[in-house]
Design goal:
By secondary structure, this protein is an alpha/beta fold. It contains six helices and nine strands, in the order βααββββαββααβαβ. Helices cover 36% and strands 18% of the residues.
């Protein structure tokens, strides 16, 4: 078994919290013998034994809940000798190269930052995944690469994409991305949009893109870029 977010595993130490609270909350009770109450001793012992078992079960349940929450955040995956149990993904990465992306970001132009983020995304996928890289606007020539398996081919294609100077109308490229994924046999389908999300680029979306049925099996992820002044 491996974990996609193994950094969360350090939080497993939190399962000791219920245990510590349990021991700190236990009070030392001074026993005082009453001869008139001795006939209740056997009944009391039986009841206390059940209460201790109940306390132990509750303690174990609390520790298990914390452990399960931590493991869920760590995203465990099973790997066998035949292959991985992880379902293959079909992914489309949409890279905004419009004129507004020439603005200054925190570490260079927004377009340079977008290209770096796209490169990091490519490193997240595994053999068996199918990645398609699209840049918009196309300025008359389609900028579509893939679908390819993750690797150097896509990174080389990404490095050759240059800044454009057209309007970043996302409607048509989003429509193409959806149509691309509709042809995929993989159950896990994802679209990543890396853009500064200028309002005028979303003003005229194709009607079919707005239909809810188009997105039933597709996950859409927006990755906004910030200007150097902190504004998106």
């Amino acid at each position: 078994m491996s974990f996609l977010n193994s950094a969360f595993l350090f939080a497993l130490a939190a399962i000791s919290i219920p245990l510590i609270i349990h021991f700190l909350s236990k009070r030392r009770i001074k026993t005082i013998e009453f001869s008139s109450l001795k006939f209740l001793e056997q009944m009391q012992k039986s009841r206390m034994r059940w209460l201790k078992i109940k306390e132990l079960l509750l303690l174990l349940m609390r520790m298990a809940i914390i452990a399960l929450i931590v493991l869920a955040f760590a995203r465990p995956t099973l790997r066998g000798f035949v292959g991985s149990s992880r379902a293959s993904s079909s992914v489309v990465i949409l890279l905004d190269r419009s004129a507004s992306m020439d603005s200054d970001g925190a570490t260079g132009s927004l377009f340079e930052e977008a290209r770096r983020i796209a490169g990091k995304l490519l490193d997240l996928f595994e053999p068996g995944d199918q990645i398609t890289l699209m840049a918009f606007p196309d300025d008359g020539s389609p900028l579509k690469y893939g679908p390819y398996a993750p690797g150097d081919e896509l990174k080389q294609r990404l490095a050759k994409i240059e800044q454009g100077y057209g309007k970043g109308d996302i409607g048509e490229i989003l429509k193409d991305a959806v149509e691309n994924l509709e042809q995929s046999r993989n159950l896990n389908r994802e679209i990543y949009v890396i853009s500064d999300f200028q309002e005028n680029g979303w003003s005229d979306l194709p009607p079919e893109i707005i239909q809810k049925s188009k997105w039933e099996n597709i996950h859409l992820f927006m990755i906004p870029l910030k200007l150097s002044g902190g504004k998106i």
